[in-house]
Amino acid sequence: MTSDIDWVELATQYGTPTYVYDGAELAGQFRRLRDAVHDSLEIFFSLKSNPNRSFFEVLQFAGARAEVSSLAELRTVLAAGADPANIIFLGPGKSETEIAACVEAGIYAIVCESFDELDHIDRAAGERGVRQRVLIRVNPAAPIAGSRLSMGGKPRQFGIDEEAVLASGGTLTGYRHADVAGIHAYLGTRILDHGVILANTAYVLDLADRIVESTGIRLDAVDIGGGLGVGYFDNENDLDLEGLAAELNPLVDKFATGHPDTRLMLESGRYLAAGCGTYLMRVRYTKKSRGVSFAVTDGGTHQHMAAIGIGSFVKRNFPIDVLSGSAGEPGPTDLWTISGPLCTPNDTIAKAVALPALKPGDLLGVRRSGAYGPSASPVYFLSHGHPAEVLLWRGRSFLVRRRDTVEDVLERQVVHPGLIHDAPPSDRIPKLGENMSSAIDAREIREFLRSELSTILDKDLPDLTDDMNLLHEVGLDSIEVVEVLMAMEDSLGLVIDPDELSPEIFETVGSLTTYIRASLANAPADAV
Fold it and tell me: Which of 23-32, 268-277, 397-406, 461-470 shows the lowest per-residue confidence on average (mean pLDDT)?
């Protein structure tokens, strides 16, 4: 990101918290990738990483195609003038409306993730009297190490298992209106070792030939996925793009020479988007608590969920800088914990980060924040809403998404006057433990947890037992732990004390139940 940005002026003009995107850096990152990889590889920007229309327009201007995963993303790129021939649509749970929109728009390909979905695509295309090109997303038979989040090689909702595709015979060529003519494979994300990307690509290209041989489909396109990583943390190095290109390009060249009519696609979201973004926030208060220096800001993890650790229980800090006030001034530094306005101890942007003396009004910037920012965060937690987004382009700044107001947050609620007070007394739902004459019953808490966890995980859970491991058996990850904390605060009226939290609390159902019972027992009477 360029160093001549006037952060004070931006904060004055647009307020804080605000995401600021440097358009020149964004376009430059695309060009660096475009110049490095083989000419045959077409680069598709994954809008899931940043779905802002103006953001995409910068990348499209630089030469990017579009990979979308929702109706809103599809409409975004079409409104931005994207050529339907350069759009693909992914996602394991496409609605009938989304499939129909893809067919009607005439996009290049729908990436199909199940045989059931293939039936739906065939029917939608048939109803419109067209043939729709389809790429089969394949879940590879074996995972490849080196990904921060594995998308294949395991039981996954993504794609059709490799062995099922290879065993399908002529099934894939038997559809009248779904024209299966290529494959897609995405094995993992945030890969920093270029050797892993090389191995992934070699596997996918070989797999494409094996699938053509076993099924007889045409090979109009092969999408090798992506997963190009970004180094966020002190112990991480950025992907060696030069090293990747040196080994990847000969492999791609060989395949392209043997398949001159096949489009080769490379997806990239985080790698293109992350570096251009700064999450700009202002310090509201500073304080000391038992020897720890805190700066409480107007920004938080509700707008930058990635800052709590990219799906990891171990908190690691994004790069963060002082952008006003103490910036560049000589003097001692201190270790600061940077927190936000939320009523949860997880609302911590950075811990023990070395910064100069901070004071209210100082501006802080969380760097590498152009990908998976507000659209991947619970922006409506505590009803705060979406932050503003600003694009810097050719010497000017542009508001490309306005900040949610209180009215924006409230206007979509549907109010029914008299709904509660006119209801029969028996319809009122008792609070947890309300009918208990003694200590809160552990069974009632387990049922509360089962209900909340079923909602969070989007699956029906069986009755919980105390010895169930919340991570390995129930299947919680760190983001879902935050949602459990939110449920405890919102549904039970508890205010979670961050000093009481430890990994042991979330080890088993029993340990979490014990913590909740103790917290309820010590809570004020009107909280339970």
Answer: 461-470
Q: Side chain identity at 440, as an amino acid letter?
A: I
**Which CATH code fits 37-268?**
3.20.20.10
Q: State if pTM tops 0.90.
A: no
Q: Tokens 């995405």: give the residue.
A: 186
Asked if CATH classification 1.10.1200.10 holds for the domain at 425-527, the reply, yes or no, is: yes
Q: Under a CB-based contact definition with an 8 Å cutoff, are residues 368 and 276 in contact?
A: no
Instruction: Give the residue from 409, 416, 466 showing the smallest Cα distance to 442.
Output: 466
Judge whether 146 and 167 are in contact, CB under 8 Å: no
User: Six-digit token pair at 30?
Assistant: 């695309």
Strand partners, 289: 292
- Comparing 302-311, 392-401, 418-427, the range with the smallest average pLDDT is 418-427
* Residue of 102, 112, 276, 343 marked active site: 343
- The secondary structure element, H or E, covering residue 418 is none
Domain ranges of the chain: 37-268, 275-408, 425-527
Question: Does the annotation count 102 as an active-site position?
Answer: no
Query: Which pLDDT tens digit goes with each residue over 141-152?
Result: 876 554 444 444
> What is the three-class DSSP state of 354?
strand
Q: Where are the alpha helices (DSSP H) in 80-114?
A: 96-105
pLDDT of amino acid 425: 63
Q: Is the pLDDT of residue 431 over 60?
A: no
Query: What are the CA-CA distances from residue 502 to residues 3, 265, 313, 344, 457 (Å)?
Result: 40, 44, 11, 14, 22
